[in-house]
Backbone:
């Protein structure tokens, strides 16, 4: 006999979809105690497989897929919400992400234009490298509800990066979906540009998907010191170490890490270094071009072409 809640946890099918399928079997094949027979279980497996094929067909934005031993890295070009909508429920262990909020840029009119505009490609006057994610409450709520759906209830941990503006306007919405456990400060060591005070930090909300799964150990502090990447190939490129800290703290063997705002692919490199599966997406051509090139080179030669040296400034308490 098989319990439906075990099937939901194990196979990433939603409870609603499974119940709908079971109800459609005639006569009803489920016992009063919520268990189903071996024969019905085979039907359920077939149903899950068919569903996966349909999802596979729908994932049209897939641009690259790599296999390293038994691990997989898959990259999509898509809008973050549309990408998440195509991922099966209850199938991702960790989300580590750094959305392109528009709030900070609206405040930073620095003479020549918005901060992201500063990175316009040669020949494109006032062009931007990438679009921003509209950080309205409505959009952000849709984004978080999709994050919640794809994250496993048993293991799901989520790390979301924020600048000060977006933290104040959107950070509280995270509580509507997840159990917020910590607000981590990433100390970039050196100052950057800024509105009044010059910026030296960003925030990371750490939350669980309603579970009490612990971190790898209890030694990790909530201030992380890693230098920013100097003259990055991709604007807003974050040090791999920031993502490694998140993944190292939360990952276990065979975990799947997801980043719907991939940028230069720092989170993908961190996931590979931590022996995890990875699924990521970005809307921009430049991001897809750079990140797939970076991942391919890293898999071939273990060389990170976009971050040549470590950004750690002190003995690394995370993984050394
Ligand atoms: C802050 S950057 C991420 C940087 C990345 N963490 C790194 O280390 O390189 C945000 C990314 O979100 C992407 N983006 C903006 N709007 C998006 C959307 N609607 N869906 C998916 N990606 C989007 C941008 O193209 C940009 O690459």
Residues:
């Amino acid at each position: 006999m098989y319990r439906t809640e075990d099937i939901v946890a194990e196979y990433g099918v939603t409870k609603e979809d499974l119940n709908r399928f079971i109800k459609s079997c005639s006569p009803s094949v489920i016992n009063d105690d919520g268990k189903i027979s071996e024969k019905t279980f085979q039907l359920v497996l077939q149903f899950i497989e068919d569903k996966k094929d349909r999802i596979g067909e729908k994932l049209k934005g897939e641009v690259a897929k790599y296999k390293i031993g038994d691990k997989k890295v898959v990259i999509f070009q898509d809008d973050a919400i549309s990408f998440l909508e195509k991922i099966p429920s209850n199938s991702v262990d960790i989300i580590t992400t750094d959305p392109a909020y528009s709030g900070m840029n609206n405040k930073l009119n620095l003479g020549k234009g918005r901060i992201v505009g500063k990175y316009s490609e040669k020949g494109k006057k006032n062009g931007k490298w990438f679009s921003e994610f509209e950080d309205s409450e409505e959009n952000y709520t849709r984004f978080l509800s999709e994050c919640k759906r794809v994250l496993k209830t048993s293991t799901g941990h989520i790390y979301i990066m924020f600048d000060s503006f977006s933290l104040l306007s959107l950070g509280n919405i995270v509580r509507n979906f997840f159990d917020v456990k910590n607000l981590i400060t990433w100390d970039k060591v050196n100052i950057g540009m800024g509105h009044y005070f010059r910026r030296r930090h960003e925030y990371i909300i750490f939350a669980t998907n309603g579970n009490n799964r612990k971190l790898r150990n209890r030694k990790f502090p909530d201030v992380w010191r890693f230098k920013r990447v100097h003259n990055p190939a991709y604007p807003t490129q974050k040090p791999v170490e920031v993502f490694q800290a998140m993944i190292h703290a939360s990952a276990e063997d065979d975990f799947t890490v997801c980043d719907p705002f991939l940028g230069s692919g720092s989170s993908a490199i961190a996931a590979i270094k931590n022996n995890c599966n990875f699924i990521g997406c970005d809307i921009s051509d430049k991001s897809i071009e750079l990140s797939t090139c970076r991942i391919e080179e890293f898999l071939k030669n273990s060389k990170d072409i976009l971050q040549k040296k470590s950004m750690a400034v002190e003995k690394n308490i995370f993984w050394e």
The domain at 59-301 is CATH 3.40.50.150 (Rossmann fold).
